[in-house]
# Entry
Amino acid sequence: MAIAAGRRKARRGRRLMGEINVTPFVDVTLVLLIIFMVAAPLLTVGVPVDLPKTDAKSLPNEQEPVSITILNNGQIYLQQDPVSQQEVLARLNAITKNDFERRIFIRGDSTSQYGIVMQVMANINAAGYRNLGLVTDPTTKTDGTK
# Structure
């Protein structure tokens, strides 16, 4: 009997806490927030270029397209790697594994020379790639709609 009474007193002295401690949750949330804030700018892909403005709608993407960027100084980038005009086809064939149906986006700076952009497009087209697209920025109309 004395043992049972001792157990009851021990239970009364150690009551369970009915509150949730949110401090660890807040700590983890803040750490994740900082990680995502640091990592988000690194997720942007591509070479910065000033694209021309058009009213064209974007095309649906099933497969990740290959991007060729031509800057206003004539420098050519395949994905994010700088290449010379002579290397474009060899590197393009290596990336696409000679998949001539692969979508290729050409991003020409709005102040770049038209001849360089057309020469790159002609070389790619002559190599057998038929799924070429020119990338532009959508314009904003005067009434504020796109």
Summary: Residues 75 and 98 are 24 Å apart (CA to CA). The chain has four helices and seven strands.
